[in-house]
Specification:
The protein contains 15 helices and twelve strands. By secondary structure, the chain is an alpha/beta fold. A seven-stranded parallel sheet has the order 3-2-1-4-5-6-7, with helices on both faces. Strands 10-9-8-11-12 form a five-stranded parallel sheet, sandwiched between helices.
């Protein structure tokens, strides 16, 4: 089967599909990843084909306010929409669509007749179990959560209005608003497989048929990949260090975060691995090492704790390794995942990015490293995650 996986966003929104794609390829399918050019190397490293989705160069992951975040998101999806039809080959047998690309892919599918299936990294369907991921962790009650979930979907529909209008015109399709297409998909119980663990988010009991939680899709890591020698040397030189990194978040905050990281580590009496990331963190000393991009799957099992921005992928990777966390959510769905980690006891209470200080981080680190309840909760979740087979579930759904 010729499968096109379409995904867009930050690295955390794309990397899990390299592992899913590699698993499908190993099962005999011809798999191509359609995403923005920045992630072409990830697709090729995983042995996948690559198709380009256009986007304007822009800084990823600042700490924007809600209104600015919406404007940025709308511009992003409009640009993606302008090249989406070109990325879909007529010989494609199946479109696997992320939450970001599904509102565009549905229209291409209507024009081409290509079957589609959702492959989402976040729970987007309304439920009484929790509020929408973009609204944090404060519950509005079961009825309120469902109302908020429907409101969040309407807001997302607005983001796609310009992109969908342009795309349908290009495809010679009659006008149809994003909300109309979404309701059409819901009426047909459009299948969506959610690539996260039930250890963090059990399947809501009030979800409609066709919505399933299958387990995490892990970013592809080559079998011969190893940690850099300087990282191995640092790990061997003393007690397990703490990892501190914000991934593609917090651009422009590198100097502030670097100072906070070093001061917090030293106040807590801990060694640290500080990942540069988009923020450009940097620190020097015998007790701290600055590192670049390394696979979480190789590093996290060897650290004492993980300080991270609570993106879905990083949160899952720390949990898989049995590493307790100090979540510092920056934006979007990150407060949701931070709250889920804390709710199962595998992380401290979230420390909001805007109020992060060396003192608060040091206190949280001392707590998470020295109280074994956090590590035990993370290890219990890791054992549950090990029983899940996200790729296998997709293969089963393909028949």
């Amino acid at each position: 089967m010729r499968i096109l996986i379409a995904a867009a966003g930050s690295r955390g929104d794309v990397a899990p599909y390299t592992g899913l794609g590699a698993g499908l390829r190993e099962a005999g399918h011809d798999v191509t990843l359609a995403t923005t050019d920045a992630f072409a190397p990830l697709a090729r490293e995983a042995g996948l084909g690559f198709r380009s989705l256009p986007t304007r160069p822009q800084a990823q992951g600042g700490a924007e306010g809600g209104r600015e975040l919406l404007r940025t998101a709308a511009a992003f999806v409009t640009e993606i929409g302008r090249g989406f039809a070109d990325a879909v080959d007529q010989g494609t047998d199946l479109l696997l669509l992320s939450a970001t690309t599904a509102p565009l892919g549905w229209h291409v599918a209507e024009a081409t007749g290509i079957p589609t299936m959702g492959a989402h990294l976040q729970p987007t369907a309304p439920t009484g179990d929790f509020p929408p991921t973009v609204m944090g962790v404060r519950s509005f009650g079961r009825a309120g959560n469902r109302i908020a979930g429907r409101f969040a979907l309407r807001m997302a529909d607005r983001l796609y209005t310009e992109a969908v209008t342009e795309l349908r015109a290009r495809l010679d399709l009659p006008p149809l608003r994003p909300a109309g297409m979404r309701r059409r998909q819901e009426r047909t119980n459009w299948p969506v497989l959610h690539g996260f663990s039930t250890a963090l988010v059990p399947r809501p009991t009030d979800w409609r048929a066709g919505l399933d939680v299958v387990g995490t899709w892990w970013p592809y890591v080559a079998p011969d990949r190893r940690l850099p020698a300087e990282v191995e040397d640092f790990l061997a030189a003393g007690a397990r260090p703490v990892f501190i990194g914000f991934g593609s978040m917090a651009a422009g905050h590198g100097e502030r975060l670097s100072g906070i990281a070093v001061q917090a580590l030293r106040r807590a009496g801990l060694r640290g691995l500080v990942q540069a990331g988009s923020a450009g963190l940097a620190a020097d000393g015998d007790d701290v090492l600055t590192i670049g991009d390394v696979p979480h799957a190789l590093l996290f099992p060897r650290v004492a704790a993980v300080v991270h921005h609570a993106g879905a992928g990083t949160a899952a990777a720390a949990l898989r390794a049995g590493a307790p966390a100090v979540p510092v959510p920056v934006t979007a769905d990150q407060p949701f995942w931070a709250g889920r980690l804390a709710s199962i006891g595998a992380a401290t209470a979230p420390v909001p990015f805007a109020s992060l200080t060396a003192e608060r981080l040091a206190d949280a680190l001392a707590q998470v490293v020295r109280r074994q309840t956090y590590a035990r909760a993370a290890s219990a979740a890791a054992r549950q995650m090990a029983t899940e087979d996200g790729v296998g579930a997709v293969l089963k759904a393909l028949g």
